[in-house]
Structure formats: C-alpha cells, structure tokens
Amino acid sequence: MKRVLFGAATLLGTGAAVARWLAARGRAPVVTKDPKESLRWLGVTINLPREEVMPDGVPPRPLSRLDVEVRAEQAPGDRGTELYARPRRAVPTGPMAILGRLRGTDPRQEVRKALRDAKSILETGEVLRPEPEPAGIHGEPSAIQKTKTALTAPKSRAASIAQPVRADRSGERRQPGLRDRVLALAARRAPGEGRL
Amino acid sequence: MKALCWQGVDELTVEQVPDPRILNAQDAIIKVIASTTCGSDLHLLGGYIPMMKSGDVIGHEFLGEVVEVGSEVRRRRPGERVVVCSIIGCGRCWPCRHDMWSLCENSNPTSGITDLLWGGSTAGIYGYSHAMGGFRGSHAEYIRVPFADHNAFPVPDDVEDMDALFASDAVPTGWMGADLGGVRPGDVVAVWGCGAVGQMAARAAVLLGAERVIAIDRYPERLRMVERQADCEAIDYTATDVDAELRERTGGRGPDVCIEAVGLEADSAGPMRVYDEVKQQLHLEQDRPIAVREAIHACRKGGSVFVLGVFTGFVDKFPLGALMNKGLTLRGAQQHGQRYIPMLLDRISKGELKPAQMATHTMTLDDGPRGYDMFKHKKDGCVRVVFRPS
C-alpha cells in the first residue's frame, strides 16, 4: 500500500511540475521571444578615449566596411570607450536566429567579429592570428614514433568512463566526444566574435 | 621539430611537427631550453578540459632563448634568455593595464568558447586546448610567443635555468594566491595541495609575513618538502581530520586565509571522493570541489578563500550558506604572472625563493610520455618533470 501511495505521490508531483513548467513557458522572457532582440546593440569596451576610437566620427576598421549603425560613448570610470554596432538590415529572431547562428549566416556574427577585431587593432595594432590546426597528427610516418607510450589509466577510473575515443593505431584522428561536439556547435557563432 | 603531443585521454606521443613561425608582427620565436609538467596538464590528459584535438602540442611553463622576433617587437632581442609567462597578455587592454593579465581581451583568438562557457572571454594559454586559443605548447624544441614584449622576461645572469623556469607559472601562481588572498603579517594561512603551486603559495605566505602557514596533502615526500621549502607546518589529510586539526591549531577560529591549490581532480580520504567521482563521470558536475568545500568550511569567520586550482564548469554541494553566513571573501583566477615575474626573479636572485627544488626529474622530450606517467602517478617522489628538448 505504501508503495502505491508513494508512486501516486511521485506521479502527481512530477505531473504538477511539468504542468507548471509548460504553463510558464508562455510567460518566460526567453531570448528567442525578446522583442528587443532584433534591435539590440552589440558592444565592446575599448581602453582608449573616444576621439581615438572614432576620430571625426568615422568608425574604426573593419566595422567601417560593414553596413551597420555605429555609435560610441565614454565608458564609466576609466574604462575607455563603449563602441556599439548593429546591422542595418533585418536580423532573424526566434528559432530562425538560432538556426542562423548554427549555420553561420546570422548577420550579427559578422558584426561581433568586426567589433572584437576593431578593439584588438585599436588597442594592440593587430589581430592575433591563430596557429594552424593540430601540429602532431598521430600516426604520421616519423622515426620518433617509436617512443610512443600510452599512459596507464588510473585504476580508479573505469575504462568505460573515458569519454573521448582513443586514436587507433592506424593513424586515425581521435573523434571528438559528445561534449566537444556540443561545445563546437554552440560556439560556431562564437570564435573570434565574443559574447557581445 | 620534435614535440610532445596529446592524442587522446591518457595518451601522449612524441612527433615531428612543423616549426613555428612568426604569424603576427609582435611575435617572437623561442628556442625552448626547459619546459616542465604542470598539475593542470593532468586535467588535459584525463579528458576533463574540452576542445582538445588529437595532435595538439602540450606544455605551458617554460624558459628559452629568443631566436627570432617580428617587426613590431621592440624590447626583446635574439640571444636573450627569457622566461615566458604561461598566460598570454596583450599588455594594452583594460584588464592587462590593471594587472589582471589572465583576463586579457585580445590574446585568445577563440574567445567565443570561453564566452559561452563562463560568460566572458579569458586570456590565451599555451598548449591548453582550443578553448584557450589553440596555441601550441612548450614541450617542443621551439615555440611561438605572441605579444613578446609583454610576455617574455629576461632572466638575470645569476639565476639558474631551473630556478627561472618555475617563474613562468608555479611561482607567480602561488604568489598570487597569497597576495590576492590578502595575506597580512600575523595571519594564519592554510594551503590545500603541496604540488609546486601549493608549495610556492605556502612560501609566499611566509614571505608576506604570515605568522603560521599550514600545508595539507597526503604524499609524505611532498609534506616533508613543503616543510623544508616553505618553512611551514604540514597536515596529512589521510591521517587526521583536517577541519578539527586546523581549529585546534588556531584557537578554534580557523585560518585567516585559505588557499586552494588542488583543482578539479581533488581527492579525499572520506566518502565525498566517491560521491564526486560518480557525479563527475555521469556529467552531473564537471569538477570535484572537495578542497574548496573544506577550505570554505575551515576558514575563520570573515576570512578569505582563494581558488588557485583549475576548474572548468559546474560543481555540486557548494557551501554557499557557509560562504554567506560566515562573511567570507572568495576569489580565484588564472595567474596574472606578468604582474609578479620581475619581482619574483629578483627574489629568486636573492635566494628568498628556491623553486629549482621542485624539479625532481629531468628528461629529454623523447621521454615525455614516461615523464607524464611518473608525474601523474607520483612515482619515485615526482613533484615536477623538466624536459630539456636540446
């Protein structure tokens, strides 16, 4: 009897929680339903005075090459200048915005990257170039490969727990794990852009 | 050139890789003289740090000789012996100008990933995943150093290679824990973890005037080493109740400053180790914060806790109630090395710091996988392995 009562209480509790969540979905201020999303300014703070960021009101490169609205304001305290931009053309909102980001077609991505690059050029004079992809590909012919030694996994970690697939001995690259795939997908909007 | 490459969980190989080259005008190419293992590399080996790719060159704590500079490098010259900070700073953004170099806003070309993970981008780090810029690491014969004027520091002639090497990471990281943890004369300081960083944090606390410094670990050789090296007390956490021991040694107050130098693979003599391991492996938490919990619980009311250990994501059973109700200050950071390195080289030169003692094993790059095996499993009393590529 106790089991039946416990089961019924669990079911009721779960049902109530799900119903509450479903009801709240319509009210929650999620990003995809934010009415300001299509008009939102993207911004970076540059550690320079306003006259050096936008001399004579001219936006810095590479922003100046884009079809964007630009404005600059003095940041509070000694933090430099807040530089803002947003695309002039319509930007997708809601689920289309998410799809656009994943496809790399959301115009805000280009603006984010341009803002970050403008900041780097103004502050340091250059945009740091990433290094070429992984240098030492496992399995390439090399005399040094003879030294290859796999570390011994500690006993406390079950073998099944090691998430990434090990590189096999035929020279295949390691396949990324689920976490890496999710991060890579989510960050497609991001490399070089920043969260602006 | 030869380099030690990450291939997958617990798998390293020595490979022939292309030589680095100048990609930006402010780069320098450094010929690596010595490069050391670091506890945070173990998180890469264990698969806890995301965005690693097969073939990535690891290593971030190193000393070398400048062999080539870009056209915009003003202060560094070929032939100089330099120690390079493991964290890359541009030197001109607001965080760098305010000596918070690990928060640099221009040195991580893949900053979107850390933006996504943490809500803000952080600095690039050599050999530490594509979330931290994808820079090639220092366990190689040569390495590219961006913004060389701000990240490579000339080593005084009277400082030996093995001492200068640790000024790249372990010494400034430990110093920062004591400095930003707010150690003041008369304080009692507790340090969790007696690896190289913990030992340096303990020594820094002594030099900053702490009345008593108590270091906590489980490896007898490390406990003896920190007693000698840092001139402090030691507690073996497998032999006693750390919380009770700290209260007994501090009149019931607890330490004024607690420094956590353990990180996301923390261990414990109690059941929490199993609990956290299970949750971590089921991805219900990313990191095991056992030492952070202990530090917060042990810290005196109104005291300070500084997190030096590397953490990546979310943790469970975080004692927020203790933090709030005891009025604690909690801080953490990757090291702001550029802030401290010249001062620390000076202290090494004067003999106040002797980090070379941590180099328990020296090997060639060819022995890299074996070196990490020793380091990971603390074989033969290993505290740090130093690779000499040439």
UniProtKB/TrEMBL annotation, chain A:
Task: Provide the residue span(s) of the region labelled Disordered.
Answer: 130-181
Composition skew (Basic and acidic residues), residue ranges: 166-181
Protein keywords: Signal
For this entry, the protein name equals Uncharacterized protein
> In which domain of life is the source organism classified?
Bacteria
KW Signal (keyword) present = yes
Originating species: Sphaerimonospora thailandensis
Q: What is the lineage of its organism?
A: Bacteria, Bacillati, Actinomycetota, Actinomycetes, Streptosporangiales
Q: Tell me the first and last residues of the signal peptide.
A: 1-19
Automatic annotation (TrEMBL), chain B:
Listed InterPro entries? ADH-like_C, ADH-like_N, GroES-like_sf, NAD(P)-bd_dom_sf
**What cofactor does this chain's UniProt record say it requires?**
Zn(2+)
UniProt protein name: Glutathione-dependent formaldehyde dehydrogenase
Pfam families recorded: ADH_N (PF08240), ADH_zinc_N (PF00107)
SUPFAM superfamilies, sorted? GroES-like, NAD(P)-binding Rossmann-fold domains
Keyword check for Zinc-finger, yes or no. Answer: no
Q: Which Gene3D superfamilies match?
A: Medium-chain alcohol dehydrogenases, catalytic domain, NAD(P)-binding Rossmann-like Domain
- Taxonomic lineage of this organism? Bacteria, Bacillati, Actinomycetota, Actinomycetes, Streptosporangiales
Q: Which GO terms describe its molecular function?
A: metal ion binding
Where does this protein come from, organism-wise?
Sphaerimonospora thailandensis
Q: What does the UniProt keyword field contain?
A: Metal-binding, Zinc
Q: Which residues form the Alcohol dehydrogenase-like N-terminal domain?
A: 25-157
